[in-house]
Structure formats: C-alpha cells, structure tokens
C-alpha cells in the first residue's frame, strides 16, 4: 500500500513535469490525462470513489477530448518539435 | 524579473505550507460537520451514498451553482465561437471502423450513462459522471460523420428545461415545506432504486443538463474552423 | 425569510430559459430577464423592510446550519443584495444577444449569492460563477483584443481561484467546518497562528483578483478598455464591490487579527499608488478610468482595514460612492474612448454629458460639497486617529493620490471643455446612456442633501456588521459548545 | 528514521502539484501550455481538499451491508471536490474556446506576442500611436 502510493505519486509528479516540459503540445495533453488518471487512483486510495470516478470521466476523458480537439483546431496536432521554429517551447528557463 | 519574483513566491509558498503541515491533523480530521452528516444523512435523505446526500441535499445550492457555471461556460464558449460558424471544409468522414464503432458504442454508452445517473444515490457516480458519458455517446457519431450537425435548438431546449426542472424541484420544496431544495417525497427503503425521495430526480435533471451542455460545447469546438487562411 | 433564496434561484431560472424563450419569441426573451430582476428587487426590498434592524439566518434545505449551507441576512448583506438587481437593471445590455442576457442574469444571481451567503465554499462557488459569467460577457463582442484580454483575465482569475480553494482546504483541514459563524467561534483557537494567516493570504489573493487588489490587477486596463462600456461599468462598479464585501466578511468574522488587517492596509496603499500613477500616465479615457478604479479600490481596502465600526463605515462610504460614480463615468466615456488629445472640445458639443462628467469627476476627486469628499474625509480622519506609522503613511499616500487624481482629471476636463476640435468624429451619446447617467447623478446629489440620515444609516449598518455575537447567534441558534 | 506517514507524502505531492502549476503558469510562453498548467494547479488543490477529509482506517462514505458501523471518511470534502472538478473543466473549455479565437485572429498563442498585439489593437481602436517606450516586443502593426 505504502509503496503503491509512492509509485502513483511519482507518476503524478513526473507526468505533471512532462506537461510543462514536453517539447510538443500533443505529448503535453497526453501527460495531463495521465496526471488525471494517476490522481483518480490516489482518490480511490483515499476512499473517495465518487471523486475518483469524476476525475477519471471528467479530468482524463472529457478534458482530454476537449484539449485534443482544440489542439487539432489550432493546427498544432502532431509530434513535431513545436509550432514555432524559434526557441524551444517551455524549456524551463524562460 | 517578474518571473523570478513569482517563482520565488511560489517556492516560498510551497515551503511555508510544507512547514505548516506539521501542525495539521491529517489522517485524523476534526470532522465537525462530517460526523454530524454521517449520523444524520441516511435518516434525513434516504440515500445510501452519503456523498450524494451532501451534493444534492446538504449542499444543493453549491450544485445549482456548479450547474450554472457549466451553463455559463458553455454559453460563453458559444458566444465566443458562434460568431461565424462557417464550415467550408468539413473534416472528411471517419473510416468504416470509426463509423461502425460509433454506431455500436452509441446505445452502449447511452445505457451506461443512464445507469450511472439513476444509481447516483446508491453507488459512486451520479448526474455529472453520467452526463459526461451521455455527452460522449452523442459526440462519438459526430466524429465519424462530421457533416452531420447536432440539433442546437433541441440541445438548447433540453439544457434549459433540465436546469429549470432542478430549480422547479427546489421551488416545490420551498412552497410545500418552506425550504428551498429540502428533500421531498418518501425516503423509501435504503439501498433500493426507488428511494431517497427527490434526489434521483435531481440527479436525472443534472445528468440531462450536463449531457446536453457538454455535447453542445464539444460540437461547437469541433465545428470551429482551424484558421482563417 | 426563506423566500430570499428566490433572489438567487429566479435569475438562474431565467438564465436557463432565456435562450429557448428567445427562439420562440424575441420580445418575450428580451423582457423575461429584466422582469425577473425587477421581481427580485421588489422581493428583497420587502425582506429588508420586514427585517428592519434585526438579523436572520436562513438554513437552506432545512438542514441546521453547521451541516447545510446558511444564508446570513443583515443590513450589510441586504444593502449589497439590493444593489445587485438595481445596478444590473440600470446597466442591462438591451442590445445584446440572448446568450448575453443569459450570462447577465447568471452574473446577477451569483452577485446576490455572494452578498448573502454565510458559507465559505458556497462563497467560492458563487465567486467562480461570477467569474465565468464575466469572461463570457467580456469576450462577447467578438473583438480580438477583447478575447485576448478575456483569456488573460481568465488565466489570472482561475489561478487566483485555485489558490483560494487551497486556502479553503487549509481552513477545512484545521477546523472541519465551512460555516462562517462556526468558524468565527473556532478561529481564535484553531486558526490563530501562521496557518490562519496563510489561509487568509491565499483567500485574499484569490478573491482580490476581482476586487482589483494590488498584485493581481494587471487585467483591469486590458478588460475595461476592450469590454462594452455597460459591462465595464458593471464590473468596476458592482462586481469589484462584492468581492470586497466577501473579503471584509472573512476579515470581520473569521480572520480578525492585526496581521490580516495590516496585510490589507499594505495592499491597499500599494494599489492606490500604482493605480493613480498609471492613470496619470494613461493616454486614453477608458484606461484612465480603469486605473483610477484600481486606485479607488485601494482606498476601499485601506478604509476597511481600519479597526471596528469606523473601518466598516469608512469602507462603505468609499465603496458606495465608487459604486455610483464609476459606472456613470464609463457610460459617459463610451463615445469618448479615443485618445485624450482627440477629445478637445468634446464637452462643448455635448453639454449635458460634459456637465455630468464634470460632476462625477469632481466627486471622485473629493471636492467639498459632493459625497466623495465626505467619504475620503471619514477615511482620512479614521487613519489619523490611529497610532502607528503605517496608518500615517497610508493617510499621506491617500492625500498625495488625491492630488494626482485631481491633476489628471482636471487635465481631462480642460481638454473636454477647452476650445478646438473641428472634426466631430464622435457619435452623440445615446439617450439610454445619458438617462442612466442622469439618474446616477440624481442619486449622487440626493446623497448631498440627505447626508445626515445617510450617515446615520451607515453607522447602524457598520455597528451591526462588527457585532460578532449577534452574527454567531443568528446563524447557529443551537447553544454554543 | 521511520518513513513519514502516508498522509504527509500525499500532502507533499499535492503541494508539489500546486507549485508546478504556478511555476508553469508563470513561465509558460504558449497560452495553451498555460491552460494545461492551470489544470495541474487545480489538481493539486483538489488533492489537498480530498486529503482534508481522509481518516486513517476509514471506509468510503457509502452505506452497504459491509460498511455498517465502521468509521467513514468525511464526505463533505469529497462533495466539494466533485464541484471543483466540474468547475475546472468548464473554465478550461471556455479558455480553450477563447484561445481558438485568439489564434484565429492573431495567428499566434505566444504570451508576449498576444499581449503586444492586444495592446496595439486597443491603442489603434483609441486612435493612439503605438507606444515605443514600453518594454514590449516590437510587433508589426495590424493593417
């Protein structure tokens, strides 16, 4: 149990870092869905099944779909390095 | 400079809160309100899921506010996107698998969504989660056949009337019992489908409204042109 | 008393139904919202009359207060609750689309809820509702600049809300309750320490976004310069005051401690200095008014940070004055939104608008017979009566800011009434805008005439607002633990 | 040294999410990433709120024959988080709609560029010459 919490927390934080630092936005959207899924596991561990279900349906599912749809309409859908050639996006030291 | 200040602020905030944490009663919450609700809720509302009791009865006004926030967000997005919805180049039709899959999934998602909504007072889940599933059911076929459009008039009526139904149940309680959103109807037997008075009705209204709102929102987003050339 | 919830529920009902009704019949949809608001106004007036000097708690859904959500009705809450439908009616977007009417109704419901609610999380929900409705309304006019401003505002405001939620989480972890009255009982013990101060700072930062508090006010000129003028008036006049009201309630009821007050005083002083200097530098009228609004809100913060009844009285005076003056100024500035230099002689071509503008501007500066003078006077005398260098500094800053304010407003007035300006490129003011502004001017002048009874009323409201024993007894009728 | 109790680990994790979200909001140079960072900030706040009601050894607050008589976790924060999650997704959808339109109009979602274009637009609408003294990136005037 203890190690499972540690593992899920590690996944959450890593995915959150990936959201901020991933070179392309599609990967960032995927990572944000991972954050939501990992959170919903944590909610189950915290005895909050209602919240876990909502986080999975809304946070991972719906919000992922909305983000992906918007990304597609923005023309940023792809695994390239970013939309602009200039400096790398969100590389941390802005 | 501004970045540095804010980063320092964020780091300082995190550190401060981390230090303060030592004094917080994590794992042993005071539960002043929680204990009272745990003792009272089953007898007062008749719902087996106490979170549902809190969402729809004890904090029903919050839920009404939450519904209105979704409504305002969808209306705002409609205002922002709806200015000129020209579909000069609709996306191509999805492949056979997407279309067939969507057709297959539609009834399945519909049933699951309705199940989740109607059992909200018994098991985890309820109007919001079920509403999301309903929205997915209506949005999937749209992915397969982008040329078809959702009927926006029908959506507007469903969301309007479902929201009005929630408030109407609250007003009924106000006039009959003197308290807005007080639990009404018999409580029934704890754990049965037909129990918990008006709570399942409220969740049904929430589910319909959330489903209509979100499918309208998704359709609006999907119908927006990529970029003016 | 329980019917007071109708003032929140009915506008929401109207908001849900207006788009559909407008599809059936446009005139019906157009009149539905204002009709409901007029009913709410009548209802709230009746409740305020019936309540008189007493206070009342309303347990929503009949669940005894610490468990359920409670509304707290006192004269302060009802004063602002009454101001909501009145102001929204006065600034109703008649020319908008059905969804804009819907969102305006949502805004009215949320603002009423903010004035009445006595529950921490319920306040957060209404605050978010208010915020979401205003994002949609700002972006509604399809101007790219307005949409960019709305997006930047949304990001700032949503980050603030998340911080406020963090503050609520801290409070709940420590105390296990959300009811303000119960928190008032618990706060001296449970929230007395750095934790309580951190929670207050987070809430202040979060709600301060809408109250135009110092570090989180960068959105103000962007939004007010691009939003429709009626909406800008509504946001600057009404919405910011309700955010201030929530902060003041939290300060009075839960976080009553010197550090919290000092935090507010410092933020207020910084807001005054920042706002008035930026307004002095502004080159067009809407941004000048926007920054001046930041400065005025800074004075409101400073006034409310004074201890006890004096603070509430001074804060109320400044806030109510600004509530009346700023929307009218935005309405009049609607057709004068160009560069200041281009306004030469504009008032000569529109004498009534020019005269009204001069009246409001003079009151804003605080020229003696007008209510603005009295509001600033109460604040300053309160500040000078306080010991400590911080209060004296605040008083000096307010005096200096008044000079700066006078300098730029007189510069604008000189331009408006001065000679020149051959090409009348500005459209004349609409009758509706002028009529509304005239009505506001009438109220302002009425304030001059009935200053004595008004002061008495405000004293009564302030006395009631700081009386914590009554607050707790009203909302928690069960014997104290 | 004994390992810290599970609640404090989670508390630290929630604070890390909040700090990451804030840092992302400040440093992001693409508005889309700001919207994603906002989601992380909210997720951290939500986790903290659920944690506020967690009770060591408690069961989920749903009455079933198996849970009768056992201590339950606090249901109130769970209801609050339910509300907060739905609010978050509504705000996110509205933000994305706005971002779509801003991208349509300006062709970019770079934070500094959007700000520059917006200021220039507002100045132009007011009939002002663009300000040069301000420390904004030079952007081409919209025609």
How does this structure look, described?
- The complex is a heterotetramer of chains A (about 90), B (about 230), C (about 475) and D (about 140).
- By secondary structure, chain A is an all-alpha fold.
- Chain A has helices at about 1-20, 25-45, 50-75.
- Chain A is built from 3 helices and no strands.
- Chain A is flat and about 40 Å long.
- With about 230 residues, chain B is mostly helical.
- Chain B has 8 helices and no strands.
- In chain B, helix 5 (about 95-120) runs antiparallel to helix 6 (about 125-145).
- The two termini of chain B are about 35 Å apart.
- The model of chain B has no long low-confidence stretch (mean pLDDT about 75).
- By secondary structure, chain C is mostly helical.
- Chain C has a domain at about 260-475.
- In chain C, helix 1 packs antiparallel against helix 2 (about 25-50), helix 13 (about 310-335) packs antiparallel against helix 16 and helix 13 crosses helix 19 (about 450-465).
- Classes of the chains: A mainly alpha (about 90), B mainly alpha (about 230), C mainly alpha (about 475), D mainly alpha (about 140).
What proportion of the residues of chain B form beta strands (DSSP E)? under 5%
Radius of gyration of chain D: 23 Å
Tally of separate helices of chain B? 8
The coarse silhouette of chain B is globular
Proportion in β-strands of chain D? under 5%
Helicity level of chain D, as a percent range?
Answer: 55-70%
Query: What value does the average pLDDT of chain D take?
Result: 80
Number of domains of chain D: 1
**End-to-end span of chain D in angstroms?**
68 Å
Task: Write down the secondary-structure element order of chain B.
Answer: HHHHHHHH
Biggest contact: B-C, 58 and 60 residues
- Assembly type of the chains comes to heterotetramer
How many individual domains of chain B? 1
- Uncertain runs of chain B are none
In CATH, the architecture of chain D is Orthogonal Bundle
CATH class of chain D equals Mainly Alpha
Here the CATH topology of chain D equals Helix Hairpins
The total of beta strands of chain D comes to 0
Write down the Rg of chain B. Answer: 22 Å
Summarize the topology.
The complex is a heterotetramer of chains A (94), B (229), C (481) and D (143).
Chain A: H1 2-21, H2 25-45, H3 49-73
Helix pairs in contact in A: 1-2, 2-3
Chain C: H1 6-24, H2 26-51, E1 56-59, E2 70-73, H3 75-90, H4 98-116, H5 120-139, H6 144-175, H7 180-190, H8 194-208, H9 219-226, H10 229-254, H11 258-281, H12 285-304, H13 308-333, H14 346-349, H15 351-365, H16 371-385, H17 389-417, H18 431-449, H19 451-465, H20 468-475
Antiparallel strand pairs in C: 1-2
Chain D: H1 6-27, H2 31-52, H3 75-106, H4 111-125
